[in-house]
# Entry
Amino acid sequence: MADRSSPWSLGGALRGMFAKPTIDETTWDDLEDAMITADFGPAVTEEVLEHLHAQVRRYNTTDPVDLKRMLRETLEERLARLNPTLTLSARPAVVLVVGVNGVGKTTTIGKFSRFLVGHGRTVIVGAADTFRAAAVDQLATWAERGGAAIQRPQQEGQDPASVAYQTIERAQREGIDIVLIDTAGRLQTKSGLMDELAKVRRVIEKQTEIAEVLLVLDATTGQNGLAQAEAFIQHAGVTGLVITKLDGSAKGGFVIAVQEKTGIPIKLIGQGERIGDLTGFTPHVFVSQLIG
Ligand code: GDP
# Structure
C-alpha cells in the first residue's frame, strides 16, 4: 500500500484537531468536515460521529488521542464486517471482471495476473470484450506484462460468451489455475450489456462454477462512479470490489462508504499505473493509513 503521504489520508486534515489538549465542539465539526470531504457520505459520517460521541461519554474522556483511537477502531470494525478474501480454490478458478469503461479494468487484469503469478499461480486472460480490436491489443499487452496467457477473439466482434468458453476450455486443457475474463463496459448500451453479461455467465456455468465476479470502481469518481455501476451491482452477481486509482484520489472515505452501500466486500486495491500497484485489502492497514 501507499506510504503515509497517501493523497487519500485524512492525516493532514485531522492533525490540528488531535494536537489540541482537549476535545471540544470544534473537534466534532472538524471531524465531520474531514469525513464529508473524504466522501464518507452523510449516512456513514453521521453514524460514526454518533457512535464516537457515545464512546467519549461512556469512557468519560476529553483526550483527543482517545478519540483518534476510537475513530480508528470504529472504522476498522465497520470495514471488517465483510470478508475481503478472494475465493480462488477451484481449478480452474474463473473470475469475471466487470465495470464501466475507463475505470481501470484492463490495467487491473494485468496487475491481478502479476499478483497471482507472484503467488505461484498460472493465469489465462480471456478477451471477451470483443467490440474493439485496439482494446483487445491493450489487454494482451497487460496480460503479457502480468505473466498471463491470453485468449483473443478469433475474429473482431466474436460472441463474448464464445471467447469466455474457449478461454476456460483452454485452461482446462492446459491445466491453467486461474481464468480472468474481461467483459465489456460500454455505458450507453446498458441493457444490452447486462444481457451480454448474463449470456457469458450462462455459458461459463455450463462448464464450471464462477469463483468471483469482481466489479472495478474508480476512486476518483467517488460515489458518482458507484451510481454509474449500479446496473452491475443489480444484475452481475458481483462478489467483490476492486477500487482503482486510490493514488490519485482524496476520497479515502469512499472506500468505507462503497462497501457499506453495496454490502459487497472490497477485495483488491489499485494505487498506481505500474504492474505491481495492486494489493489485497486489509482493513487494519487501510485504516492506519487513512487516519495517519
Ligand atoms: P478500462 O477502460 O476500464 O479497461 O481502463 P484502463 O485499464 O485502460 O485504465 C484507464 C486509465 O486509468 C489508464 O490511463 C490507466 O493507466 C489508469 N489507471 C488504471 N488504474 C490506475 C490506478 O490504480 N492509478 C492510477 N493513477 N491510474 C490508473
Residues 161 and 201 are 8 Å apart (CA to CA).
